[in-house]
Amino acid sequence: MASFRLKFEQGLKARGIGVTNELSDSSDAVLVIAGTRFLPDLWRARRRGIRVVQRLDGINWVQRVRWTGARYHLRAEYGNVMLSLIRSQFADHVIYQSRFIRHWWQDWYGMARVPATVIINGVDLQAYTPEGPHERPIDRFRLLLLEGSLARGLNSGLFHAVSLAEKLSEKYPMEVMVAGNVDEATRQKLQSKVPVKFLGVIPRGQIPALARSSHLMYCAEVNPPCPNSVIEALACGLPVVGFDSGSLKELVTQEAGRVVPYGGDPWKLETPDVSALALSAADVLMNQEQFRAAARKRAESAFGLEQMTDAYLKILLEN
What is the pLDDT of residue 11? Predict the structure, then answer.
């Protein structure tokens, strides 16, 4: 959410449109990014005739499949209740970040009572670009994971990524670079013959150079709603590989990476078919220039920040 907010505000300010985080009578519209606990303020805005648009991410679900800790479980379920309440009682229009998210919400909570639109996330194509400094290794291939959190109950994708690197290492020298929060227990549990480097949570400004310094990105989230990290990687010319769950196939074309069948039930967090992904990922490693160019082309054609901002403004300022 923070990533989207920063990019969207950037797009609005470039158009001379004022942005505030506080509701006021002078507001033309309110964009609720997922949810908010300030429901009375939202209700007053609607009564004053201010348009309310809700941007929806995915639904919290992992806590229903595996133990994520009491705190995470309660926060996740509370979040679902609040998101659903705003969608059903407060929003004048709902924006889903992908077709997958729209289908998911409609399947679990029914059709929204108001109009709904799918708008894929965008990225600043001038900041996220293949051009610029990098430290891409020439003696090995680097597999990048770029996630907000791969800690505790959300860590399954990390183990799958390492398994993928191990499969690839049977033919190619590999290493895994992990950017994101990983708890110490997970790090200790992760044993691999392939070097794994943990960077922790990195500043946003370092992401383009890190993407340019890698050969592949693995989308570690299972059933990803619309991962900004994938869009940012493509914009930097970094091919993306992963399993066909969530919205990934909406984002990554076969020219810009490889998306293969999961080989199990992702909603049960079953082990995916890593061998099949390794076969496809090897093709990307052996044709880097072709895939890197296609990744950037994909971002330019579908994920520009200007395109996204225009689509949001059309809905926010609709009469």
Answer: 83
Q: 266 near 160, Cβ under 8 Å?
A: no
* pTM: predicted TM-score of the whole model, two decimal places: 0.93
Dihedral sign for Cα atoms in the order 97, 102, 104, 106: positive
Amino acid at 28: D
Q: What is the pLDDT, as a whole number, of residue 25? A: 72
Query: Token pair of 31, please?
Result: 């964009």
Within a 13 Å sphere around the CA of 93, how many CA atoms are in the beta-carbon half? 20
Cα separation, 44 vs 56, in Å, equals 21
Measured CA to CA in angstroms, residue 185 lies from 145, 151, 165, 189 at distances of: 18, 9, 21, 6
Query: How many whole angstroms separate alpha carbon 197 and alpha carbon 164?
Result: 15
111-129 burial code (b ≥16 CB/10 A, e <16): ebeeebebbbbbbbbebbb
Domain ranges in the chain are 2-122+304-316, 141-302
Q: What CA–CA distance (Å, rounded) separates 200 from 211?
A: 15
Q: In the CATH scheme, what is the code of domain 2-122+304-316?
A: 3.40.50
Which residues, given as ranges, of the chain have pLDDT below 50? none
pLDDT at position 80:
95
**What pLDDT does 228 receive?**
92
> Letter for the amino acid at 265?
D
Count how many residues are written for the chain: 319
Q: Per residue in 88-130, pLDDT tens?
A: 999 999 999 999 999 999 999 999 999 999 999 999 999 999 9
Q: In the numeric block, which tokens belong to residue 274?
A: 């890593």
Q: Which helix (H) or strand (E) holds 218?
A: strand 216-218
Provide the pLDDT for residue 319.
62
For residue 241, what are the β-bridge partners? 218, 258
Q: Does domain 141-302 have CATH number 1.10.238.10?
A: no
- 240 contacts 230 by C-beta, under 8 angstroms: yes
CB-based burial of residue 29 (10 Å sphere; 0-12 exposed, 13-18 middle, 19+ buried)?
middle
